[in-house]
Amino acid sequence: MARSELVKPKNLNLETLIGLAKMLVAEETDGHLTLMQFTTGWKVFIRTPNLDIGSRREEVGNVQMHGTLKEALIDLILHKGKGRGKYNPA
């Protein structure tokens, strides 16, 4: 594998992706990173969703589902600040 290929997100291992996501979350919030596995895939959130409130469930439902945890983490890292994986508890 060429050196330039190593830095492509799809070539990073899960441990590295989780580390990057934790760094991004620490900069953005109080450090909460939520990983959710469903029967149909994975969702990753900045902050902790409050599923006791109906409107919050809808917000969780609107976050894109990914086939793998790796894909969900890559999407969060690449698109942070563009609404993906971003859960607004306010």
Account of the protein in words:
This protein starts with a helix and ends in an 11-residue tail after the last helix. The chain is 43% helix and 13% strand. The protein has one domain. α2 runs parallel beside α4. With 90 residues, the protein is of the alpha+beta class. The longest helix has 15 residues, at 14-28.
Q: What key phrases describe this protein's structure?
A:
90 residues; 4 helices; 13% strand; two-stranded antiparallel ribbon; disordered C terminus; alpha+beta
Query: Which class of secondary structure composition applies to the elements?
Result: alpha+beta
Number of helices: 4
Share of helix, binned: 40-55%
Taken together, the total number of domains comes to: 1
Strand content: 5-15%
Give the termini distance in whole angstroms.
Answer: 45 Å
Radius of gyration: 14 Å
Write the layout of secondary structure elements.
Elements: H1 3-6, H2 14-28, E1 33-38, E2 41-46, H3 54-62, H4 69-79
Antiparallel strand pairs: 1-2
Helix pairs in contact: 2-4
Provide a compact summary of the structure.
This protein is α+β, with helices and mostly antiparallel strands. 43% of the residues lie in helices and 13% in strands. The chain has one domain (3-79).
